[in-house]
Amino acid sequence: MSVIKQCLVSHTLLLITMLVAPFSVLAEESKFNMPRGVTEISEEVYDIHMLVFYICCVIGIAVFAVMFYSLLKHRKSVGAVPSQFHDNTAVEIIWTLVPTLILVLIAVPATKTLLKIEVDREADMSIKVTGWQWKWQYEYLDEDISFFSNLSEASNQARQRASGIDPSTVENYLLDVDNPVVIPVNTRVRFLVTSADVIHSWWVPALGWKQDAIPGFINTAWTEVKEPGIYRGQCAELCGKDHGYMPVVLEAKSQADYAEWVKEQQRKQEEAMLASGRDWSMDELMSRGEKIYTANCAACHQANGEGIGMFPALKGSPVATQGSVEEHTKLVLNGLNAMPAFGAQLNDADIAAIVTYERNAWGNDVGDMIQPSAVKALR
Questions:
Q1: 299: part of which helix (H) or strand (E)?
Q2: Kind of pairing between the strands at 200-204 and 209-213
Q3: Which residues constitute the domain of residue 172?
């Protein structure tokens, strides 16, 4: 087969793909195309995306059509003699004006949507989103509610080295959390996004935008979800070792269900305050400590306490078996080197539980424990 025939075959296949692509993309939207989303902004973004896509298809079809025509009409076998010509002012004006008009056609709706994304005034409620390595903190500024959102326990266990768990058996693997951020439907919600350590990026595709979380800065964005549902996303900025294990889950509830959720969260926070004010038994601290450790420490030190890479083992470590419980607690509270300070992330009861667990799990068996009141005194 000649080179020209090979080119014709390959380019014909490419042209067919371009002609069929728009229809296959629409038919398999969830698989091959960006989602339409569940907000007004996301729908506008989707429409702009499809506008640009179809413009590219038209341009591609036109270019290949001219190329095919030229290959067939001016081939050597039919005696075509190449013309000799140089500068053509009309052609140069056309190929300058046409792309400019296309860019303007795209820029006008895109600019309108970008401006709409940036206008976050007249919000009905505000949520502060703080990125941590590697979790999200949500603070409801109007409701006095604050909590952390970690990778779900099922995903966290499955992703551990030599866990023996097939990730395909875990529902929403790496895309599920223990505490989703919850908002009411038909409510304009403003998000104030920042970071406590490195640059993260809060991203839920169904909302139609993503926002960088930068230490020392607060970036704003807003959304208004129309229908109840659960919408999943991820951190979209490479932020360190566990970047891939930092999902975002947003749940939109009806106004009535959201009001009930607010009451439940406020009740939990009151219980947490009461828990930090009483003494716990060893069994209570160990049970609670295992859950807190799995959610916050297993990523670096492994579930079995043996550590990984630059992160030291806690099993049999001098900190957990030889040092005082007070020094151990100060380390957890204040952090050291690559280890973050958990004093700002966990309450007194949680710190007491995790320190007690680390000193008595995996065969450490030190036998001592620390109470929330003692943790409070060490802060």
A1: helix 298-301
A2: antiparallel
A3: 125-259
**Contact indicator for 295, 157 with CB cutoff of 8 Å:** no
Residue 233, phi then psi, degrees to nearest 5: -155, -165
Do 13 and 109 fall within a single domain? yes
Q: What's 150's domain CATH number?
A: 2.60.40.420
CATH number at residue 286: 1.10.760.10
Number of folded domains that form the chain: 3
* Sign for the pseudo-dihedral over CA of 318, 320, 322, 323: positive
Q: Is 355 a domain residue? A: yes
The total of other beta-carbon atoms located within 10 Å of residue 62's CB is: 10
230 and 346 housed in the same domain = no
Whether the Cβ atoms of residue 22 and residue 54 lie closer than 8 Å to each other: yes
Final residue in a domain of this structure, among 228, 259, 290: 259
State the DSSP string of 329-370: HHHHHH-BTTBPP-TTTS-HHHHHHHHHHHHHSTT-------
Q: Along the 379 residues of the chain, how does pLDDT read in single tens digits?
A: 454 555 455 555 555 554 555 544 444 455 678 888 899 999 999 999 999 999 999 999 999 999 999 889 888 888 888 877 778 888 899 989 999 999 999 999 999 999 988 887 788 999 999 999 899 999 999 888 999 999 998 998 888 877 889 999 999 999 999 999 999 999 999 999 999 999 999 999 999 999 999 999 999 999 999 999 999 999 999 998 889 999 999 999 999 999 999 999 999 888 888 878 888 999 999 999 999 998 888 878 888 888 887 888 899 999 889 889 999 999 999 888 778 888 888 889 999 999 999 999 999 988 899 999 989 888 8
- Is-contact 211 155, C-beta < 8 A? no
Token code pair at residue 43: 């729908």
The encoded tokens of residue 44 equal 């506008």
In the numeric block, the tokens 């920042």 are attached to: 194
CB 14 within 8 A of CB 64: yes
Q: Is residue 134 included in any domain, yes or no?
A: yes
